[in-house]
Known about the structure:
Blueprint: H1 2-23, H2 29-49, H3 54-74, H4 84-95, H5 97-114, H6 121-137, H7 139-142, H8 149-173, H9 178-187, H10 189-221
Amino acid sequence: MKRWVTVGCLLLTALLILGGALLFDDRAVVWVTLCGTVLSVVPFAVSFEKGDPSAVRTVLLSVMVALSVLGRGAFAAVPFCKPVAAVTVLCGMYLGTEAGVLCGALSALLSAMMFEMGPWVPFQMLAWGLCGLLGGLTARWTRLFRLLLVPVGIVCGVLFSAVMDVWTVISIDNGFRLTRYAAALTASLPMMVTYAVSNAVFLLVLCVPFRRAMDRLHTKYGL
């Protein structure tokens, strides 16, 4: 049930972001970002009310978001090589899909305050939120087989680039055209590959320490 709530909120967020970008000017981005943030909180709030181990889980989610934001800042000088998607996937793996979605959305929003806010931020929130969803949906297999994180990281890289290229087309044309979108995807292919590979590397490097930490927390708190 919680996963359906998460998927439904992501679909509403996608429609909201697309509608805001196509129908309104850049001044509406504040309201679109605010509504997208509220929608990303809903699935986690539902799981909170369902009686999950909320206190420890909420603290862990806060730590994951902080690590994601700090990681983006630490790698700011390295183009298309950021650990945000990897941390978000790991958050979804160990804390659930709703936590992964919220981690991705908040990571985009909070890290944008370090760099620059703009109409592309809601698209980043959606893209990294989808990475968190993917982390949660594949957790059953990636927890057992570490190497499966490689294709997950690659898919996240492709997914992020595909979502952000929607914004690229809308910002250029004030509308969406498939031909322009195909051209944007082709032009961004080198960046997409770089980001996909870096995601896979970050996941392989981070998964072992994260797993050890989560195993200890599971033993202590039953999380």
